[in-house]
Structures are given as C-alpha cells and as structure tokens.
Amino acid sequence: MASKGQRFMKYTNAEREEILSKYIEGYSAKYLGNLYGIPRKTIETWKQKVLHPKEKSNSKRGRPKEKDLTKEDYKERYEILKKYQAFLKAQRERK
Fold first, then answer.
1. CA distances (Å), origin 28, targets 4, 17, 22, 79
2. What is the pLDDT of residue 85?
3. Which of 15, 31, 46, 54 is the residue whose CA sits 20 to 30 A from 39?
4. Is residue 83 part of a domain?
C-alpha cells in the first residue's frame, strides 16, 4: 500500500522496452532490478501487461449504477424492503 506523500517512479516507454527485451532474452527480473534500480515485481508486472493484456468484457460486475436500473429492478428492491420490514416487525413482537 502506498504511503502518504509517496512518489512513484516514472519510466519512459523506451526504458520499459529495453528492460523487457532483456527480460525476455533470459535475464532474471532480480538481476535487471538490481541493474536498473527497479523493483523486480515492477518488471514482472510490465511483462504480464505486455504478454497477457486484459481483455475487456462486456459483463458488468458489482452493484448496478442507479442510471442502469430498470423499473423491474426498483420493484424487486421494493419487495425485498417490504419483506425485510415484515421480518423486523416480527422480531420486535417476539421480544
């Protein structure tokens, strides 16, 4: 996790390409990290981004945004709230 006020190193594309080409040739990430003063995990992350770029999927994850909700979604939420209120009322009556 980043610390408050931490500054991150910025590398040019030419530097990245040079380091990645040496990494692909067979040099270890640890060796290149020590040589260039870069954490080995950074080099491995660059490699992953180049060799396995993320494919954007159309499937949405997580909770839907308010603007994406339909009338049916609102009805479903209303029904859930009604059931929850009835449950809470029953719990209070037991006590």
1. 31, 15, 9, 58
2. 96
3. 54
4. yes
